[in-house]
Write a structure and sequence with these properties.
Blueprint lengths: L5 H15 L3 H8 L3 H13 L6 E5 L5 H8 L3 E6 L2 H5 L7 E3 L12 E7 L8 H11 E12 L5 H22 L2 H9 L7 H10 L3 E8 L4 E7 L2
Parallel strand pairs: 1-2, 1-4, 2-3, 4-5
Antiparallel strand pairs: 5-7, 6-7
Helix pairs in contact: 3-4, 7-8
Length: 226
């Protein structure tokens, strides 16, 4: 499919997530065989923050990560620019409609930041990482979870068949075919793993680490604001 240009990307992505919000969680569970549940909990665990720490969950969607953060006795605040997602949210955490590239929070105001499966949806990754660094207190931790491609050629071929054929088909049956065609295609927006790690370093993060999950189908990037 043809991906939206930078000029129209934010508008197109917002409209898409508004449409798929009511069934988004259910399809995530179906399409990942519930593996996404464990990946999110791993992301929360890698923060290593004490109980009561404030964590900003950017592109919070329906609140999956907010619920996992609260389960660990952290204090989540969800941010998303999709009104449809926020309306469908299932969390008691405070929710804010806002732009990830212009976060409505002061400098050095939160202890942690999480973001699940949204890096490829931002108009500017550089802008997003800069905003993340801005709102984090010194010593604050960030965890970014997103899709990836396996390094192994055989696994990559199987992954591409599933992700680019099966996912749009099932998504079309249960929700919105155009949206679930965009989601696999949008991996084209993601830099290579080494470039992602380097970008975090360029924005001041230290102890940057990348871990692959699901035989390479997902990745978790973590870092600390010095």
């Amino acid at each position: 499919m043809t991906l939206p240009t930078t000029e129209h990307k934010a508008e197109a992505v917002e409209a898409m997530f508004d449409r798929i919000a009511p069934r988004y969680d259910r399809l995530n569970r179906v399409l990942t065989f519930r593996l996404d549940v464990g990946w999110r909990r791993k992301a929360v665990a890698t923060l290593g923050l004490p109980p009561g720490a404030t964590v900003l969950d950017i592109a919070c969607g329906t609140g999956d990560l907010c619920r996992d953060l609260a389960r660990e006795r952290l204090r989540p605040i969800g941010v998303d620019f999709s009104a449809g997602m926020l309306a469908s949210a299932r969390t008691v955490a405070p929710l804010v409609r806002g732009d990830a590239l212009q976060l409505p929070f002061p400098n050095e105001s939160v202890d942690g930041v999480t973001c699940g499966f949204a890096l490829r949806n931002f108009v500017s990754l550089d802008g997003f990482f800069a905003e993340t660094a801005r709102v984090l207190r010194p010593g604050g931790r960030a965890a970014f979870l997103d899709v990836a491609e396996p390094d192994n050629a055989v696994l990559r071929a199987g992954h591409n068949l599933y992700f680019r054929r099966v996912v749009p088909f099932v998504g079309g049956l249960l929700s919105d075919r155009a949206a679930y065609a965009y989601l696999p295609a949008s991996t084209a927006y993601l830099p290579a793993p080494a470039a992602l790690v380097a970008m975090l370093g360029e924005h001041g993060f230290t102890a940057v680490h990348r871990e692959a999950f699901g035989l390479g189908a997902a990745q978790l990037l973590t870092g600390t604001r010095p």
